[in-house]
């Protein structure tokens, strides 16, 4: 026992895998030549057990004792009824949030970082590489690596490295090596540096560097979203929430989450989806993904095969995409600046089993400030998208006089994003949205890529 | 029910008041003329119920439902066994920490801010004033004020206002008005501004402004430490810890906490002190206060009547002090930069019932980094003092081969103090300590003050 807790039983002992319960088989990852990617192709990059999970058709996967033991530092995370927010909105709806911000790095990301680093360490690998933008994922990897005695090299987008020193310090405090990207460590990095010695970097370039470093130097690469094994680890969120909302004698009509790559939202809704599938759900629960208007993958993208990264180094993934060369505007919700979406979530949106909605940056921060002033918790800018959607659902319930139940994922706190709140409070926060023409251009490129496949 | 939790029962329904259990009567607060301060003298400043609690001889004080309802946002806080730290130290000791950093403002301070703001709002007062240095207390007041619909004016030391914008933003996000001090709002502020238009301010000046503003404008003043009613509210920490450590089938030999004004440490140890007093303690538990060498109140100060503030506006308090005009060096543990100490804790140290130890800034950060890398949680610089003491106790236990149990208070997280960690990691953090001569000079002034009293 690590944590004193009569709730310790509530922390799951197994993860849920949605793949066998999907309405259709998941389209395979493809190599550029059109062949499906085989597990062994992934083993060059990822720990073997993670590859096994990635291709697994098993519904339940045991959580190793060593991983659960770390979860117990902060899990179970609270499920809280937002009574003051309900009162402020004068809504008959009941609003609940699952708060993942109590983890040491402040978000849901360590749920998978801890699992990945455990498997990497168990397989005798001494170092991992990864990329990070604003630093949420990188700091979770640094945290998990420090606990399992593994070295971590984090390629951090240079613009963030220079502008957001606090997350860099957090990673260094946990013992990680943080390298501004592009760097002179890799061929990819040197190529971009030779073009521009002050290159600001991008997530796509940082991925390329992290992958190259891992493959060439016998390290493993770890990824923070999109892939099945990552989302599987996040289901501890929803499995706990199932137990917790029943303690309120309640059950959600809506399960809501912000969506970038899709991991925090999937972590919450998959277990509810499972109950619906097997007839255990107490209501006809609906699932709603929330994204920024600046990166409208699910609401304006198309369901196509596209690269997972900007440089086109990853396999092709069947997913909703607005094009791998789309450059997301610099909104503060850095974790939602992704051109694609998890293949599992994309399939469910394509099949109409999950809905999607997009909001602008200012209205999202407005909802976040309302939440902070009524409920006390400062939402991460990513999580604030879920707050906005929950508020809109609650206001609709009020108009219709329906006492519905809304559950959303507060995936992280915003204490390292206060500069963004400052900008909002000073009225200086812009709304940014791509034009229909720009989006069409990027998506058309993906269509051509698909047509050109052998 | 607000939080889904089988642990909800563990959140106390009453606070513990140590005053009737002290080994001697608490010396009264005195006016400058030597007369004891009466409750009605305090009612000008504080809510009536808080004054009643300040002078209360009752052991148990009921926690209002409305206050407990807010506690349930983040309480009970975790009690965690630090197994990885134990392993890293190769100690036979068992180390536990109570983690108060999961509150929305990130420290133990809202335990009393919520109570104080509730009573203020119930008495129909629409505004509170307070002072803040680095911003931990101010942000907790802003948080609590937003929940009870009370306006908050926070006088923030100008140097911090300029250098630490994030905590200012946090207070503004919760709707508080943050005024850099000295300001032109008060006579005291204008006096210091006329001396120096760019005056950096000090906590003493900010207190003077907050008090003057409250008294002149019909607001109430709220305070974050030292006084009995403040410490009483913090006992939720120790009352939970008593239940939680018993779930481990364990009981502490040592209860350890960092000490500035004394509120977080008292909140943890008072309930254990109570059990010892009434013969319910399972061991001969010892209590250890930890302070910075830069502000060695308990280890080098004297037990005298002194002012609580720098300007000499407060009543005289019998406490350990290094002199109200001692200027603490700018160490990063801003919450420990206080010349005095709670009168209850001072009495217990004077009576030998509580021990005290002081550490230097660098060794404290070294322990904090070890903790972050083994346990994952980033300690606030204040809490890091307790970490250092726990590590030293565990190493002594190793030398002596004694499997003792250590419980310490991790009173807050350090996510808004990463600049300090950066300084430490770069080797740029100084050790600062006052000379014996300097201390003697400040303490001598207090002795003269005492001698001069009518």
TrEMBL record, chains A, B:
Residues 73-404 form the Tryptophan synthase beta chain-like PALP domain. SUPFAM superfamilies: Tryptophan synthase beta subunit-like PLP-dependent enzymes. It catalyses: (1S,2R)-1-C-(indol-3-yl)glycerol 3-phosphate + L-serine = D-glyceraldehyde 3-phosphate + L-tryptophan + H2O. Keywords: Amino-acid biosynthesis, Aromatic amino acid biosynthesis, Lyase, Pyridoxal phosphate, Tryptophan biosynthesis. The modification N6-(pyridoxal phosphate)lysine is found at residue 109. Pfam families: PALP. Its EC number is 4.2.1.20. This is Tryptophan synthase beta chain. It comes from the Archaea.
């Amino acid at each position: 026992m690590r944590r004193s807790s009569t709730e310790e039983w509530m922390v799951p002992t197994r993860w849920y895998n949605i793949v066998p319960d999907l309405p259709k088989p998941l389209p395979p990852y493809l190599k550029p030549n059109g062949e499906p990617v085989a597990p062994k192709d992934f083993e060059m990059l990822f720990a073997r057990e993670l590859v096994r999970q990635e291709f697994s058709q098993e519904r339940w996967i045991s959580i190793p004792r060593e991983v659960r033991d770390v979860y117990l530092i902060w899990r179970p995370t609270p499920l809280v009824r937002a009574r003051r927010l309900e009162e402020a909105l004068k809504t008959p709806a009941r609003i609940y949030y699952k708060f993942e911000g109590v983890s040491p790095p402040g978000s849901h990301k360590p749920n998978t970082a801890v699992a990945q680093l455990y498997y990497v360490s168990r397989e005798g690998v001494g170092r991992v590489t990864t990329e990070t933008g604003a630093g949420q994922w990188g700091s979770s990897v640094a945290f998990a690596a420090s606990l399992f005695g593994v070295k971590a090299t984090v390629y951090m987008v240079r613009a963030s490295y220079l502008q957001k020193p606090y997350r860099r310090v957090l990673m260094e405090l946990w013992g990680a090596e943080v390298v501004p990207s592009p760097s002179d460590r890799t061929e990819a990095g040197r190529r971009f540096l030779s073009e521009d010695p002050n290159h600001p970097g991008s997530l796509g370039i940082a991925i390329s560097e992290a992958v190259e470093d891992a493959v060439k130097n016998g390290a493993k690469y770890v990824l923070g979203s999109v892939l099945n094994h990552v989302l599987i680890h996040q289901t501890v969120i929803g499995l706990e929430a199932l137990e917790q909302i029943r303690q309120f004698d309640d059950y959600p009509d809506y399960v809501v989450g912000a969506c970038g790559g899709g991991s925090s939202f999937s972590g919450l809704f998959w277990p509810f989806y499972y109950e619906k599938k097997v007839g255990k759900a107490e209501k006809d629960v609906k699932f709603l993904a929330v994204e920024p208007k600046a990166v409208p993958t699910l609401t304006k993208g198309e369901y196509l095969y596209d690269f997972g990264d900007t440089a086109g180094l990853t396999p092709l993934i069947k997913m909703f995409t607005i094009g791998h060369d789309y450059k997301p505007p610099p909104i503060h919700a850095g974790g939602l600046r992704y051109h694609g979406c998890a293949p599992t979530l994309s399939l469910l949106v394509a099949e109409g089993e999950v809905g999607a909605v997009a909001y602008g940056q200012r209205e999202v921060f407005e909802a976040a400030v309302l939440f902070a002033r009524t409920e006390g918790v400062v939402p991460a800018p990513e999580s604030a998208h879920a707050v906005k959607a929950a508020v809109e659902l609650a206001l609709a319930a009020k108009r219709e006089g329906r006492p519905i139940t809304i559950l959303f994922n507060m995936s992280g706190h915003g204490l390292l994003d206060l500069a963004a709140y400052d900008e909002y409070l000073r009225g200086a926060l812009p709304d940014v949205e791509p034009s229909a023409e720009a989006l069409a251009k990027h998506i058309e490129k993906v269509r051509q890529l698909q047509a050109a496949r052998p």
